Amino acid sequence: REVSRSKRSSSPLAHDVSPDGKWLVYVEEKPWTNQLVNVIYLYDIAAKKSYPVTSGRFRDDFPAFSTDGKYLAYVSYRALSYTADTVFSQLNTTADAKIELVPLAKTTPSPLRAKNDEEGQAPVEKPADDKGAKVDLDGIQNRLITVPGVSGQITQVAMIGDRIVYPMGRQINF
Question: What does DSSP say about strands 90-103 and 59-65: parallel, antiparallel, or unpaired?
C-alpha cells in the first residue's frame, strides 16, 4: 500500500516504524515550495490514516521512534548561524540543524529533565501491557522539546532509552 510519494527528489523519503509496529512516521515534501520544507506525519497502520506532527513551516527531516516507543526524535532546520566574511565585509549564513523530541503521550515527561538525587533509586515497574507506543494526537505539535547544545549538519538521529545518537561531521555523538 502506498502511504506517500516523493514529489521533488528522487531519493527515498525518511521513515521509521514504531517498536510495536502500529505506527509509521514519514516525511512528506511540500511540492508548492521551492525550498526544502517538509512535514512529518504519523500514520496509524490499523486505521490507515495520517496525522501531521509538524507544521510544515520548517525543514523537518529524518524522524525516528525511540526504542521504548515514548518519543519521536527528528532533525529540524529552524535556525541560521552567522559567520563573518572579512574579505567581502558581510555575514554569511549556514542552515544548522537541531534535534527535536516529541513525547508521544501527553503524560510522558521530558527525558531531559533534571533528576533529583533525593528521589531514590527505586526500581521502576513496568505494567504488563506496556508493549505499545501510546500516542496522543491532540496537541502533538505543541509538545516539542529542543535538545540544547546540539546544532550543526546532522543527517540522522536515533533515540535509545534516554540517549540520543546522531552523526555530525565525521563523528557519531550521543
Answer: unpaired
Query: How many Cβ atoms from other residues are within 10 Å of residue 164's Cβ?
Result: 21
Chain-centre distance for alpha carbon 71: 8
Q: How far is CA 106 from CA 71, 73, 94, 127, in A?
A: 11, 16, 34, 18
Task: Say how far apart CA 36 and CA 162 lie, in whole Å.
Answer: 30
Cβ–Cβ contacts within 10 Å for residue 63, how many? 25
Compute the radius of gyration of the chain from its Cα atoms.
18
How many CB atoms neighbour CB 21 within 10 A? 10
Query: Phi and psi dihedrals of 119, rounded to 5?
Result: -70, -20
| 83 or 137, greater pLDDT | 137
Q: State phi, psi for 122 to the nearest 5 degrees.
A: -65, 140
Cα–Cα distance, 65 to 24 (Å, whole number): 9
| E-state strands within 58-118 | 59-65, 71-85, 90-103
Q: Which of 139, 18, 130 is nearest to 72 (CA)?
A: 18
pLDDT digits (tens, 9 = 90+) for 35-87: 678 889 999 999 999 999 998 888 888 999 999 999 999 999 877 677 788 88
Over the stretch 143-163, which tens digit does the pLDDT of each residue have? 999 988 887 788 888 888 878
- Specify the amino acid at residue 41: Y
